[in-house]
# Entry
Amino acid sequence: MRVAGGRLALPGLVDMRTSTLRVAPNLGWSDLEPLPMMNLPANLPMGVANEAKLAALAQIWGVPAGMRTRRTFLYVSGDVGVGAAIVVEDEIFHGRHGWSGEIGHLTIDPAGPLCRCGSTGCLERYAGKEALVSAVGLDVDTPDEMLADRLSTADAAAKATVQDAGAALGQAIADAVNLLDIDQVLLGGSYAGIAHLLAPAIEAELRDRVLGAPWAPVTVAAAPVADHAALTGGALAVLRGVIDDPVRLIERLG
Ligand SMILES: [Zn+2]
# Structure
């Protein structure tokens, strides 16, 4: 097998032109050039990209056309951090520097707890994986499936956790929808397996807070590609580069 290229997915602000990670608050990394540290073959075209944006590519190119309902959507990915990608007509809106989509640092409550980014009351503190697991007495290393099982139970702690996280997510997503006029939200990462639990609380906030909701209800669903989404998106990004410019690959392989 000949390797056409690779992508390194990182949960933070990535400068794609220089393959530099500016900051990843939950890793405690900043101003880092990770590729030279990886001892990769010299002629292997590698790039660094934001994890949520790569995972969103899997939702665009990794899904059979007949299964897709929208070409414009907001992808929201949960883990310790909460990331997002704004997808407009099958293209990711990167923003001026490629730093769009940092939904995890939208403010839910300015008087809320300190976030690793330095701000206070960010969405991550209410709906990130640490908030979810600690509210039901689990460890942050708990596998997503086990967390989903715990949150599916009928006890009061599980229900309150789902309600609180869903409401915080709904507030942040409503802000995004009011700004962007998007009517589909796909939940990925550790949210994919609990999307059906979170959706009612999120949709309740969207009904109350999105100005256009009476005319265009916003749908919330699990992302179609849930497992290894960033990995799949990274591979598809390389493949798209080959399709766009096959001569470059042929020349490199000699
Ligand atoms: Zn923050």
